[in-house]
Structures are given as C-alpha cells and as structure tokens.
Design brief:
homodimer, about 180 residues, mainly beta, 6-stranded mixed β-barrel, 4 helices
C-alpha cells in the first residue's frame, strides 16, 4: 500500500491561554496543512533552553487543549535535553523549555519527539485494510531501509498521509510528498 | 552478528597541499579515532556556501591524497546543496564549498554525504562470514527499523565498526558505541 509523506519540522501547539500570554493579535493562517482545518500560522516563537535558542519556530493552529513543542533528536542534542518519543498530546515525561516572543515568555514541560504516524479515517482504514495499530514503512534508495513503529492515528476528516520528523526524512533522503510503501 | 556504532559528524579531510594553504602549523592530534592511525585534529575550519556558514568543523588526520568534506543531509539543506551519497574518496558529482581559516580560504568540489559502511579486515570478514558487498542493519526501539545499503569497506588494520552519519544516528536514536545487529 502506497502513502504520501508529510515532513514535520519543529513546531509548537499552544493552548488559547498560553497563546494569549505570548501574542496580542489573534492567530492568523499563513498556509493550510493537508490535515483539514490545521494550518501553519503567521506567528512564530523562539525556543530557549539554558541560553541556547532556535528562532522562527512556527505555531501550528488552531490552538489546542494542550501546549506542546515537537522537535527532532537533532534539535534535542542542540538543547541538551532528552525528550520522549510520543503521540501528540501525550506529555508524560516531556522536557521543559522556554517559549519566547517580543511580548513575553513562558516555560512549559511540553517537549516531545513525535512518533512516526499515519493520519487516516476509519473508512480509509477499512478500505485499505490497515487494521493493525502500527506498521512498517519501506523506503527505496541508497539511504533507504525500513521505518518501524509507524502508528495508526485514526480520526474523522483525516487526510491520508504519513508524518515523519526531519531526522527520519533526512536520514532516508525522503522529500515532502514522496511516496513510500506500507509493509 | 553484532557490531558497534561510530557516529560521524560533519568533518573534513585535506590534501597536504590544501592543508598548507589553510594552516601555518603542522596538523596536530587532539584525540585518536577507533580506526588505527586516524585522529580528530586540533585544527578546525569554517565551511561556507553563499553566505551560510558552519564553524568549528573538525579536520580528520592524517592528511590524505584527496580533499573531501563529509556532511549530513541536514547540513546539505542548510547550505542548499545536493551532494551525492558516496564512498569516501569517490568525489564524482560532489558539490562545491569554501573551506575557511584565519589564514585563507579555498573553494573545492569536495562535498559528499558518506554512505553507511562497515570497517573490517579481510580476516574478520572471513571469521564473521561477512562476504557480501553490502548488508542491512536492524535497530531496535521506538525509532528503530532497518538501515539498507550498508557497504563493507575492507582494509588492513581496520577496527570492526559501523559508521553512520548524524542523520541516521538521530533518526534511529542511536548513540556512539551502541550495538546493533547485522542481518
């Protein structure tokens, strides 16, 4: 079964409350994501830990019921932290970071490395016969191989797509919208 | 068959001639590498392409018969170049970059992404029955999977070790000296 890849670079989800601590203006869409209703916002933040900073980190909207910072292992080494590999929204054991804007800054225990996952509706799951909780993905090419523990994330109105972080994409020489194979 | 991992971060090999263009002092060992005779040098350079720079990039000694810059795909995106995935020393199709020190700068067509490879002697190859040209590596864990096209690099006086770049290591949550499985 083929699937298209969406690459998640580091990004931040905010609660309404945290958003309003960091920004005066309402969240504004810059460009839509493939997942219906989700968008990259005009708003960005700076992430900071012990004096090390990453600037221009995109907010993904709309705001959520939890504040979460999704980074790669490469970013984690830069910050010298060890976030867990987790489902979005599961902040158990997550690392602390400071989120800064011109207006203010907040420190939250909110950093995870997102696990590899497939967005899919219940209907597509049945249609494509993807009824297990996780699958493996085969990638061709000189830097190819197999990505294990790719979690099925079923939700209504999902766009059928494999989400990988930038480390996985770069290690396997995968580009946005490449097609790979579920095995 | 188990094998220990050595992670190669971005580094530079220089010819004697290029070294002498960039430095006045002789190359000096900072710390030995596992491969006999090889060492991380005290000397570092800055890599530059169209105004984008990476500083403190380590020279690996001793100097060689070719000048070569080994970076990750992550670095390649930063520089906006597309180097080929290659054996060390095979500079066919490699990308151009400027190598800078306080003394001077040189521009060379020398950038590759090193392929995944195993250093091994002829004797160990026979002992461990690793007679094919390439193998696959199995990595356990939530970010595990299989790395394909791991090339066997046979040479006398080799230390038996799997070399991966920082993208592969970070994608798979592999650390220096971790043990993985050849399949």
């Amino acid at each position: 079964m083929k699937i298209k890849v969406g690459i998640s670079v580091r990004h931040v989800h905010l609660t309404e409350e945290d958003y309003n601590l960091l920004f005066d203006e309402p969240i504004q869409e810059k460009s839509p994501l493939n997942q219906p209703g989700q968008f990259a916002a005009e708003q960005t933040v700076t992430l900071e830990k012990d004096g090390r900073e990453l600037k221009n980190v995109r907010i993904i909207g709309p705001n959520r019921t939890y504040t979460q910072v999704e980074i790669s292992r490469t970013d984690a080494y830069y910050f010298k932290i060890n976030p867990p590999v987790r489902d979005s929204g599961d902040l158990e054991g997550s690392e602390e970071i400071t989120i800064k804007t011109d207006k203010s800054s907040i420190t939250r225990k909110a950093v995870i490395i997102a696990n590899r996952h497939i967005h899919i509706t219940k209907e597509d799951r049945e249609k494509y016969n993807l009824l297990k909780d996780e699958y493996e993905i085969k990638v061709p090419g000189e830097k190819g191989g197999v990505l294990s523990h790719v979690h099925i994330k079923e939700a209504p109105n999902s766009y059928y797509e494999l989400h990988l972080d930038s480390d996985d994409a770069n290690a396997f020489s995968i580009k946005q919208d490449d097609e790979v194979e579920i095995i």
